[in-house]
Every structure is written in structure tokens, then in C-alpha cells.
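User: quick one, fold this
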Amino acid sequence: MNKAYVIRVAFIVALGGFLMGFDASVISGVVRFIEPYFELSKIQLGWAVACLTLTATLTMFVAGPISDRIGRKKILTYAAILYAISALTSAMATEFWFFIIARMIGGIGVGISLIIAPMYIAEISPPKIRGRLVSFNQLNIVIGISAAFFSNYIILKLTNSDSLWVKTMQIDTQAWRYMLGVEFIPALFYFICLFFVPRSPRWLALKGFDDKALVIMKKTSGEEIALQEFKAIKESIKNDSNKEKAHIKELFKPAMKLVMIIGIVIAITQQITGINAVFFYAPMIFEQSGVGLDASFSQAILVGLTNLVFTIVAIWLIDKLGRKPLLMIGISGIIVSMFVIGMAFKTANYSLTTEKINKLTEVINNDKLTQFENKQFESDLEFRKEIRTVFGNELNKEQETILMTNAIDINPMLVLFGIIGFVASFACSLGPVMWVLFSELFPNRLRGLAISFAGTINSAFSFLVQLVFPWELANIGNSTTFFIYGAFALVGLVLLHKYLPETKGKSLEELEKILIKS
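Assistant:
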């Protein structure tokens, strides 16, 4: 077995996961700038974030069948091209509709990467190291998220530079375009690197290219194991061709009731607790706690690093501690963290001192500011309502944000502690454990169909959370929004504690006997 070769190939293909994480999370730094630039409503702002998830969800339906037709390597190459196109076109957008289309193109690449990259790695990896190599993709997604936060922060810092090259390239005035456009570099790198990976041996065998498949398998697994695996692949292809295709109606038979309840509950809980609201709006949340623009971006880096560290912790613990204990501990942490954030905003108040008003007149040149002098407001909703009463439509989105963040009196470290605690709890539980459980819970014959069904529900709730989050903050307030996420987590915890059995150490056949009632 040429272990170094297999690891190199798996690492290259897993860069699709890096691009997916980067493309999905880079928008977190951009929302602050595109809201006033395109003059967006809160739902439009949510749509700017969520549109990528919508196209990714739709792409997941067709990515597998298309890869069966044209090959795993070729469709991943197309994904790299789509990432590059999306990066450049979204960075150049001057109209909102064009920006949305550009982001949706990137969503197609995300949908392909999510399904095909781990599939390819599993098909080329020797059995002994398959689990670790497939986990490269999840790890790269998390690294991509962290890289996006870090890249956004570096570009933001450049806007304060007096360097001639910064002003010549207009980074100081067009930072958000560079945040989006920088993804072109890793996308191009991925496209070039894919020329150095072979086609999937299982796909080659499926298409009748047996000699080519064997050459690759001997290179990755050694001759003896390659011959054994090749024989098993051919038998599997033959058996699959004789099997009747599974129908979605079978998922709703009485025998499947328990396993489908578990699958749907965990799919919804993973998203409805607000993870993508935090990942995709992290700087916005931190800025609303009054820490300032630079600090909000630097704290977002901490979110990415926390996600990375605790994902590694989960990979280490999942076979030691078990799936259910990790979920129970992690979801409990999510509940506590969300209530900490909610209480931080609930106990905050908003007021403008004479000193703050004098400072704000540099940005908001308006005598009406004095009407707020030494008035105190108990919530963000109350203060926002007063802003609109006093100013009407005179302020743009950026000025309203500046007014809100300067007026808030809150403990920002409590918000930071809550967000970091939430991400750590999620990363060592709902994040990775959901996909492990999906591969174990469903019966062999229906596994692919059931995972697609549950995955679609998961993506649909992800889309909804991203879409409505800015609207929630503006209309029901910061504290209520986070309390709702905590309440949903509590419901998920109760249901999973009641219905979910421990799957650690049990064979798929044993689990089928426990979960599928004949």
C-alpha cells in the first residue's frame, strides 16, 4: 500500500471541503457592507446569505446521479470552476440580483463538494484508513470556515492602512469585494491539483474499465488487497443491478417510525438551534454587543478556531465516549450558552450620553441626536423604534447600526463567552455526530434514500434559519431570538434522550433489529 500517495490524493480532494466552508462563511464579513450598499431590507439581507444554501440543497439531489454518469473527478473539477466564477462575479456585483445569482453559482459548488468529495475519498481509500481519510473532508470544511473569518479580518485591517497600494487597489473603500474575490485563489489551486488525482476506481469498475480500476487500486491498497476489493466491488455492482430500487414511501411504513423520528429530530435540532446564524452572522452579533467593528471581526476568528479545536475533540471522543453521551452533553451546553447570550442582551440597556452624541455627530450630522440625550431604553426594540420615530427614513442602514452599537450598555464578554460556548458544544456534538448517526441508524437497503431525505430536511431548516435571522433581530429582538434557539435545543434534548439508543460498538445488523420494528 502506497500510504503517502493515498493521503496526498485524499488531501487534494478534501480541498473541496475547504472551499465549501470558506464559500459558506465568507459572507459573515460581507453582510456589514452589502446591507447599506444595496440598501437591503432584513429579509433581503437574509436572502443574500441563505441563497447559497438553497442551491446547495437542490444540487445535492442531482450531484450523485450526475457523478455516476460523468465521474467523481470530472464533477469536482466543475465544482472548482463554479467556485472561481462565483468568487469573481460576486466581488464585481453592482446590482443585488446579480450578486444573488453569483452566490447561487457558488452554492452549486457547495452541493457538489458536500456529496462527492467524501464519496470519492471513501472509494479510493484502503479499508484500514478509510475513516480517517474521509474525516479529512469534515476537517477541511471547518478549516475553511476559520480561514474565511481570518481572511475577512486581514482585509478589514487593511482598510485602515495608509499604504499607496491599498488605496490604488481601493481595498480601503471596497473591502467586501476583496473578501469575496480572494476565494478565486484557492479555487484555482483546487482546479489545478485535481489534474493530479486519478479517477475513482469504483466508478471505473462501474463503467467497465476494469483494467484501469485495478491499476489504481493496486497503487493505493497493494496487489493482494486490491484483487480482493475489486472482486467485492464487481459482486456489489452485480447485486445492485438485480435489486429493486427503494421507494420513498417505504420510509413512512410503521416499521420505520422510530428510526425516522430520531433522524428527523436530529436533522432539525442541528440547524434550528442557530448554528448557521452564528457562523454566517458572527461579526454582526458581536458588533451589536458594542465591541466595535475591528473587535467583532477578530472575535469571529475565535469562533472559527473554537469550531476547529472541538471538531477534533469530537473525532477523538466519538468512539470512546459514545454518540448519545456526546449529544446529551453538547446539547446541554448549547442550551446554557443560548440562555447566557439571551440574558446578556435582556439585561442590556441603551442610552446616549452627551459625550457619545458629540462623537456621533461626526458620522450622523443631525440636530435630532440631542433628543436622545440621557434617555434610557430597556431593549434594542424600544431603542430602534425611537430611532425611527425621531429620524424617519433619514438614516441609512450603516448609520442606524452605528447608533445602536454606540448606545448599548452590555457585558460584551458575556456574549463572547456564550457564543464560544455554543460553538464548542455544537462542534463536539450535533455537528459531527449527526452524520455518524445517519450512517448507522437507517437499514442497509434504505440508507442512501433515508440519508438524502433527512439531509434535505436539515438543509431546508438551515436555509430558513439563515433567511430569517436578520429579520428576527430587527423585529423580535436579540434576547428573544437567542432564547428561542435555547428553547428549541431543550426540546431536541428531551426527544433525543427519550428515543435515541446508544449505537457505539453495535453492528449495523444489531441496530437494525433494535430500531426497525417488523
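User: anything notable?
Assistant: Strands lie at 349-351, 376-377, 408-409.
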